Records
---
Amino acid sequence: MFTGIVQAVGEIAALQPSGGDLRLRVRSGELPLDDVALGDSISTNGVCLTVTELPGDGYWADVSRETLDFTTLGGLEVGSRVNLEKALTPASRLGGHIVSGHVDGVGEVVSSSEDGRSIRFVLRAPAPLAKYIAHKGSITVDGTSLTVNAVNGAEFDLNIIPQTMQETIFGSYRPGSRVNLEVDVIARYLERLVLGEAAAEPGAGGLSLDTLAEHGFLRR
């Protein structure tokens, strides 16, 4: 588990295809690894990766085909900059929100504009994720915990302060940039809880107006 508070920006040092999967070497930059052991987890652009080697200036991790298919990691190149965060401990401050490192989908940067000393970004989420994104709710973008300022369909606004621009890779985003999105874990579990016993039925999907009405959440 993570908090979504990026601790350092690293750099991709090597990419090694391996049997359809990928081995990834990351230079960790200012992220201290003295307390990291083999098997520990590090969020890399919002993706929870397991450390398989510690060469001294960073770490190696294996990236499965599933992860390559559902995140932006397959599009990284040597030299690409990535947001890094070590897994939280019981003594960690939860400065952001609870982040699992399990990416829900890939979004796209629509636009950016100056907003005082901050930069306002508009991002577009995949349509199936739009229902989990709420005004003033939390969302994780490439491992960064952020508050949603506005929602318009599948598009949502983020206000990025100078500190976040400096300490993450947000400064490299341009219209069309693809980003890893993780919605608030509470929203995902709430959907399953509302389904009740129907969640155990084969083919049970997400919420519908009929389901909400059946369980007393809507009146018709």
---
Amino acid sequence: MTIDDPKYMDYFLDLSVVLTGFSRIDLQGTGQATLYFDTVRAIVGGEIFAELLDTFNTDGVDAVLDSGKFSPISRNILKLWYMATWEELPMVWRERYGIKQNDSTLIANPYAYPEGLVWKAIGVNPPGAKAPGYATWSYPPSVKLSIQPKA
């Protein structure tokens, strides 16, 4: 199997649901799934990416998050969905698994920024994009966050 097999996009979305806490519909609704899938593949390579997704599909998210090989990639997948940002993998990872030519801190695509899940999570529109309308700045965010003190 190669990473081009359609099952890997399904695995990627399933992993992303678990990592982000958003539904598959919410993730697909951003229009960024293919961009993020292609970004991860271009940076870490198809072999490592397929291995991560197969591990998730077979052994679950804990196996991925507990792995020194896969957890840094998983954290970056989370960052892609929330902020459209990939951060360069840690030097320890790069030394162990090889420095990838495309691995650097980057914004996946400028058009991905307004679709970041962070804006939906905090109930605001992204600054400088997706204007909500005249004078809407005077209203509180649409999502009410409740922070419960620890007992």
